[in-house]
Amino acid sequence: MQIDINSLPNDIQYKLISSTIVPRPIALITTYNDDTGDNAAPFSFFNAMGENPPVLVVGLETRRHSRTLKDTTHNVMHNGQFVVHLVDEGLGEAMNVCAIDFPSDVSETAMAGLNLVPSTVVKPKRITEAPVAFECEKINFVQISPDRHILIGKVVMMHVREGLFDPDTYYIDPEKYHPIGRMFGQLYTRTRDHFKMTVPAYEDWQKTHPK
To answer: Residue 65: pLDDT band by 50, 70, 90 thresholds?
Structure first.
């Protein structure tokens, strides 16, 4: 089936993209505003885009009904700083509370029962319950449509929950780290089912795939 996705309404484009590019990691982002204080909101149009420098990218949309900027977008535009928290199974319910469209002067983290502590480099605080947190500074904002911005950020400090980090391999222990992923609509997925695949050297692959 061939779909001319650009000819479809925005909400249908969203459904097609969000239901096929799955699972997606979830960024629970905290920002700060001098007038309204701390803000937290989850975004699943999110991923890592490289190292040296370490770069994270987030898709930020306007509010669906009013078409106004969300607090996250507004705050980062004004002060250029934010903290990305990865969401594990234990943080899932609180993340869902943070998705509620509270008034700007209401702290989502307080409503979700989460605790904030000062960050090391940036002004926005970080959530202590998160397994991993990245303090970030804005590299650039790219406006791709009236309702969508792409935020590109540089990681300036990383925090990892005690016991997750393997100092010998520099990997996070997959037996202890259990992030959840966004599917689409109200569907999420767990990440406990692991398997390995090794990319063979070309010479070895030739031996098993003779011409």
So the answer is: confident
Whether 10 is covered by a domain: the verdict is: no
List, in sequence order, every beta strand (DSSP E) within the chain. 24-25, 27-33, 37-43, 46-50, 55-61, 81-86, 116-117, 126-127, 132-145, 148-160, 165-166, 171-172, 180-182, 188-190
How far apart CA 103 and CA 154 sit, in angstroms, is 29
Kindly report the CATH number assigned to the domain that includes residue 66.
2.30.110.10
In the block, residue with structure tokens 């089936």: 1
Q: Rounded to an integer, what distance in angstroms lies between the CA atom of residue 48 and that of residue 44?
A: 12
Is pTM beyond 0.85? Reply is yes
- Structural domain boundaries enclosing 112: 17-208
Beta bridge partners of 97: none
Closest to 58 (Cα-Cα) out of 28, 16, 97, 34: 28
Task: State the average pLDDT over residues 17-35.
Answer: 96
Q: Work out how many domains the chain is built from and give that number.
A: 1
Rounded CA gap, 18 and 24, in Å?
Answer: 9
Q: Which helix (H) or strand (E) holds 192?
A: none
Tell whether 2 is covered by a domain.
no
Helices (H), the chain: 10-20, 71-79, 92-98, 108-111, 202-208
Within-domain flag for 62: yes
